[in-house]
Amino acid sequence: MTDAPGRLPARSGEWINRDQVVEFSFEGKTYRGLAGDTVTSALVAAGVRTLGRSFKYHRQRGPLSVANHDVNVMVDDGARTNLRGDVLPIHDGLTLKAVNTEGGLGSDRNRHINRLAKFLPVGFYYKTFHRPRRLFPFWERRIRALAGLGTIKRDAPRAETPKRYDFCDVLVIGAGPAGLSAALAAASRGARVVVVDENARAGGSLTHQWAGDDGAAGIRDELLRRVAAESLIDMRMSTTAAGYYADNWVALVDDVRLTKMRARQVVVASGCFEQPAVFHGNDLPGVMFGSGVQRLLHRYAVRPFRRAVVLVANSDGYRVALDLIAAGIEVATVADLRPEGETGPLATLVEQAGVTVRRGCGVYEAMADKQGELCAAVLAPVNAQGELDASRGERLECDGLVMSVGWAPAGNLLYQAGTRMDYADHVQQFVPAELPDGVHAAGRVNGVYELQQQLVDGERAGLAACVALACFSGQIPEQPRHEGASPSHPYPIFDHPKAKNFVDFDEDLQLKDLLNACQEGFDNIELMKRFSTVGMGPSQGKHSNMNAVRILARVRKQSIMATGTTTARPYFHPVPLKMLAGRSFNPERRTSLHERHRLLGASFTHVGDWLRPEYYRSSERRRDDLVVEEVRSVRNGVGLIDVGTLGKIEIRGPDAATFLERIYTGRFANTKLGRMTLALRCDESGVVTDDGIAARFGDDHFYVTASTTRTGAVVQDMQHWLVRWKLDAVVINATGHFAAMNLAGPYSRHVLSELTELDLDTAQLPFGGVAMAEVAGVPARIMRVGFVGELGYEIHVPAQFGGFVWDRVMQAGKRHAIRPFGVEAQRVLRLEKGIPIVGTDSDGLTNPLEMDMEWALAMDKPLFIGQRSLEILRKRPSERRLVGFCLPVGHDGARIRESHLVIRDGDICGRITSVAFSPTLNRIIGLAFVAPDQAAADTRIDIRGDGGGMVAATVTKLPFYDPEDLAQAGAAALKEVS
Amino acid sequence: MKIIHCPVNGPRPMQEFAYGGAFREMPDPATASDTEWGDYVFNRDGAPGVKREWWYHLASGVWFVAERDTLRDRFLRTYLYNEGEQPHD
Amino acid sequence: MPLGLLRFALNKKHPEPRMFREPDALKSSYDVVIIGAGGHGLACAYYLARDHGITNVAVLEQGYIGGGNTGRNTTIIRSNYLTPEGVRFYDESVRLFKDLSEDFDLNLFYSERGHFTFAHTDSALNTMRWRAEVNKHMGVDSEVVDRETIHEACPELDLDCGGHLPIMGALYHAPGAVARHDAVAWGYGRGADKRGVEIHQKTRVNDIRVEGGKVVGVETDKGFIHTGKVVSAVAGFTPRITEMVGLRTPITIQPLQACVTEPLKPWLDTILVSATLHVYVSQSSRGELVMGSALDPYELHSTRSTLDFTESLSGHLLDMFPFLSEIKVNRQWAGMADMTPDFAPVMGLTPIDGLYLDAGWGTWGFKATPVCGKTMSYTVANDRPHELIEPFSLSRFENYQLVGEKGAASVGH
Lengths: 978, 89, 413
Known about the structure:
- The complex is a heterotrimer.
- By secondary structure, chain A is α+β, with helices and mostly antiparallel strands.
- Chain A contains 22 helices and 48 strands.
- In chain A, the strands form 12 sheets. In chain A, strands 8, 9, 10, 11, 12, 13 and 26 form a 7-stranded mixed sheet that branches.
- The radius of gyration of chain A is 39 Å and the shape is elongated.
- Chain B has a single domain, classed as 2-Layer Sandwich (Folate-binding fold).
- Chain B has a 4-stranded antiparallel sheet with strand order 3-4-5-6, with no helix packed on it.
- By secondary structure, chain C is α+β, with helices and mostly antiparallel strands.
- Chain C folds into 2 domains: 190 residues, FAD/NAD(P)-binding domain (3-Layer(bba) Sandwich), CATH 3.50.50.60; 156 residues, D-Amino Acid Oxidase, subunit A, domain 2 (D-Amino Acid Oxidase, Chain A, domain 2).
- Helices cover 27% and strands 24% of the residues of chain C.
- Chain C contains 9 helices and 20 strands.
- In chain C, the strands form 4 sheets. In chain C, strands 6-7-5-15-16-17-14-18 form an 8-stranded mixed sheet. Chain C has a 6-stranded mixed sheet with strand order 9-2-1-13-20-19. In chain C, strands 3-8-4 form a 3-stranded antiparallel sheet, with no helix packed on it.
- The two termini of chain C are 35 Å apart.
- Classes of the chains: A alpha+beta, B mainly beta, C alpha+beta.
- Strand 29 of chain A pairs antiparallel with strand 18 of chain C, so a sheet runs across the interface.
């Protein structure tokens, strides 16, 4: 158990609860922190300085930003990995280890890689390991094993998180002074405001940078009081605005969920990221950002070190020095990179505290002790060229080194929104130059640094949002302009013969790596990123992109503006897959007869979104045998299949017939009432897209079916043509309105006649006839169909009566041993009848000519979709033809399946589209595409079956079963049901 | 997610809509040459610009015409085919 | 540690020259002008110089080398296509890919991982078998495998996909590989540059001048260049080029998005694709899961990202790998895919004398990079299409001779 030597006495505004001690472990040791602590603050309080290892060189790393702007502290809690210690709250029992170590943080066996750094220049992996080729897999395994950070948890459960849709007038991103000011201004004009901030508490820079200033503390308390009192402001802390998407659609991520916020206006007051000075050893544990130190001091009352050197290039650094002094930390010196130093009163205050301020002085190198942690800094004066004069270096002992040399705007969301950002010399940063409609920027991200100015800028942005919302029309304050010295140094980057001066801490990239990338020709910002990987790590360049741009600009001897930046893409911080995924939602559709099928032992199969019975487990027999039984029952007796998933489309209106004439290939204008016709559809290129039947129930009323999986698309397309042709008709997708079943088999008429008054005699209701009548007292549409090649009736009834009618049909069929059958039996039955299924026996390029369906094309009509293309295709030699084939009875050669190829003279000339054992014909039959000259009946074709075995088949005239169509005509002799 | 203004249903999120391709007049099949017809079937004006397009509101089955900047993904105008300005090519 | 790295430690100065020169200004004329310094354009330049001795070549790039779809794809290389012409073409590409690291002396991290395309339905399984049969016929290593085989190769995968659409089997393509996409462009660029080709980045083509049906030059933002041969290898920008010369094509542009997770220690060795769930995923050598999905369903000439993309992709990925729930998506991006009606490219000559198209790559361009360079350079040098690309001519559309890749109507990457 370790105590907390770094914990400071209580201070106002701290985020910790001193009454609640939390015990957790890190790298096998137990620590005590306080409720409100993050992993980083608790460990630093406990005196731990090394909190992680770096990605490439496995260098020791300590806290840097304490704001999740770097990934020096990445931990694994056993269930999750790559967690950011800077912002991960501790709780009792939390058990952590650092990621990316082999053998633990202290004794990481990969730490020796650090000493090999000079062998591993930028992009080294492009330069070797590929010769000899056979050894590459070996090297690749080694490299892959070294890469990566955390380790997956194979047994972690699927986490299902909720999602939320939300709306607001103004979304303010960032609860700092500018953001809160914007929120108050907007709410005061009646706008509904949501404020989000990734931090646990509101206040932004008022909770760290300005927290040491008594006046600022007052402003903070006042802002927070007013915000709390404003009912129109909804404050959401610990909520990250992770990405900006079109039309002010912003992804908000908190601990629980993803919220998709539609904001009428967005104010980005996201502040900025502190940027490192680049010098030798700038990554040693003990080297921190000024703002990082302030977060520890003010939020967690944690002192990260005892004696510090403070490297500054702005006023902020002096404030840090004063905060350190106030916290009892010895400030060894303040080294100001600027020759002129600080011009305001802050330098005086620091000097009055007895601290030497060295103007025009930088850190030449940071030095490590035996533990690999900071023990001293070598200071050196800055010469006229802006370089450090190492010959005049001076070593100062210190366990802390604070960098406060500049900032980069947290402009990620602004960039994603399409903001043009220009480089502003007076603040040495990119600022918004042209904002998209509905997006505003305020505060530091807008180049405004002084506290009073930030408040004004926030108010301005809030009011500007209100103007856009038309809830304010008064005067808007001018955008404040930063006065005085720039908060950012133009080039805080210093060479060192031993390098280890890091630009990108995520990727272990040193100054020379970027210079060498330039030397190799990767000297524009995008190529530099791609070759060096700068900014590609988990923190996405938050602390590295700006310095990379500065380095490149200097190499190219061009302006920062001309150098440009890389594109900022979502996410601001990485977002867990579970948040994006939300709850698993995979809907499936069931017909109104589903429960009947279940009770009958159906084995279901997915057909698109639908579940359909594949076959019924009516006995213990094997699937294939059951299918054969179902087929036989239809052929010899009577069967019943649920066809409710078929698309059912109502087409009504004076132009209904004209419309169908144009949509389908066949004729409809002269279809008689009470008759139906094949409805074959093509697309404009002549490719077959769907088929069904079209039944005419009235002069202006057709009832059309479509394939189960294509109904939505068919209806959509029909409605489109209806609009384009300006025809007077309506198309309604009635699929769900009706239950539908096909009663088929020689005895189907016997069964149905018991349930309806309708005269089922062929003279009255012939094959292809349709009628409206009652079935079991339920209004029904009855269609005499022949899809399975038997006498059969499709019965469509309102969906709510489906179960009732099914039951009555099954009851009436008992005498004839009626049996429900599934899609597998239906597939065999229709194959025996030689009926191709669009999508199974055709593909994305098949035209009706190739399917031998020229008979279904009314080419002399004025117009149908695909007609003109078919005219062209008709003139061309066809390349394939769909034919039936069969194998000899008792075939015992290689098994053939769908997609097996038809081979002739060693070339592919076709493939099987459907194949099945036909119980009726007692042999294997199928449909296949073959070369046109193989299409004649009795032609021998050779199929390459399983294992490459060749199978000879014979092209067979279709249909295989009942070529005289006696059965479906109801003219076949009845057989006894076995 | 983008918002699209359906002429019937007002502003709705894009996921409720389907793209129906560019607005194109079908040439008269009786007079078009095979080449002209093939051009109509296959070729498209693929370059970016403000284009007239078909869009469909899935939930209500409404087809309408949209004028959209395909470079910036901005909908400039939407209208029903038979109510809006008569589109012409 | 390979000895090759010694020189970096032994040299005081970084011992590497520029991979590509930065030419001063455009010359007034070139034998060939290639528009687009992505993998395809640079490969064409490379083989023009290396195999055909044509070195007076300028590659013009409005952005930077490899900045388009070359650097935006998910780096998958495979040849398990559906049509014989597709298989033949991509198989040659795979063959060339395997030699590239050594040819370039640049490690492309060409890594054979094995490629599974899942079937969740009977009809998908039939399509997989179709591809497997055609592949085997063409001598390409593909086979339909069952659930057990998939489980052995990737034990982490939930074959039932959470109970929703269980995987029934897969097309397994052992040669399926990934490679460092950027480096492919750099390698070709370096090789072309070394042989005298000029690569002009940040040089925009504003017009192509055609006289009497023949290309005579290119108008750029840096002046006019005389040339009789122009190769357009600009993927998502193709319609802008063809519009300059009034060339009608079926190419339309749709965004294709992708994303990566944070780096993880290696666990996924294979490349997995589910067209039904709209997911493809592999793990890069950096440890990131690289993931993609289906095309965005409408025309757009922009590389914007959408939230819907990561939402739906994440949901389906977790159907396959529930334990990844806490893993984080780091970054998403998009490219502009140049789609054709038959999901096959448009390559070769055009009705305009001296204008050559390398386009219509949809979502498959990266894996074709080497073979495109080979065949396009041949086509340009000989002014007749290389036999491997004959089936992909622009004229196939007006002739209603589409390539059957759409036959399967399957999504593949």
